[in-house]
């Protein structure tokens, strides 16, 4: 029995989290859920969207899965996602981008993985005002962080039969910060002769992902570029409702959907739970429940290809729970 911390989140979070639990339990996985709450609705009670007991629950169980949590734009509290990553040193953000037959898209047979550094870059949150004139945000890039994220990408490629790792950067302009990332990536790649290595400037990467996504396999990059390009990748395979994510560190792992909390449709049963369900598939593989993960993945392929029970964002009329039930039946 695996004890997993469940953070349902807010907005559509509780709905997609419940759908995910239905599917995981139908797969036969031996999971005991410890549910804890985080998000804006916790501020009045605890004075923070991320109470200490939530972090302690993740530390105790070592594995967590969370629904989306609202982050205010331009004001308010710091992102719960960023805080979790920094507090638990979850230095890897892993986002597979994979297409399914039956999902409306102009692309087919996409299967690439984005490995995003998770703890520094502009997301380190080092900002200050310059009087009333402006504001400055500091881009922090360190060699140890570069080494471990590229090492993870190379190891991931080797363990999963991947042939190419591409480092994404803007070292032609940011010669010191991105230059350090690129230099370090090349050094790490030298120790992994079984995997091909290349590098690409981030703006060219954005264009090439739209024009030639089949050319890429594993892509490793600093924090901001990973945030942007993983969303671009989601657009290639049906949208953010499809894409899973994992935040992985030495001691802990937190799995999550990469989309937002969509408060405008909360409670309406319109949300697509695929992203969180696919995140659960990643989680099951991480804890050794590989057969259950494969059952869910095969069920997703069957339901998508039939096209009879798709959520609204994919052109269907199914509710969140109807889609989850279709997956359970397919298993």
UniProtKB/TrEMBL annotation:
Pfam families: Iso_dh. One of its GO terms (biological process) is isocitrate metabolic process. PROSITE patterns: IDH_IMDH (PS00470). SMART domains: Iso_dh (SM01329). It comes from the Bacteria. InterPro entries: IsoCit/isopropylmalate_DH_CS, IsoPropMal-DH-like_dom. Keywords: Oxidoreductase. SUPFAM superfamilies: Isocitrate/Isopropylmalate dehydrogenase-like. Residues 3-327 form the Isopropylmalate dehydrogenase-like domain. GO terms for molecular function: isocitrate dehydrogenase (NAD+) activity; magnesium ion binding; NAD binding. Belongs to the isocitrate and isopropylmalate dehydrogenases family. This is Isocitrate dehydrogenase. It comes from Clostridium polyendosporum. The gene is icd.
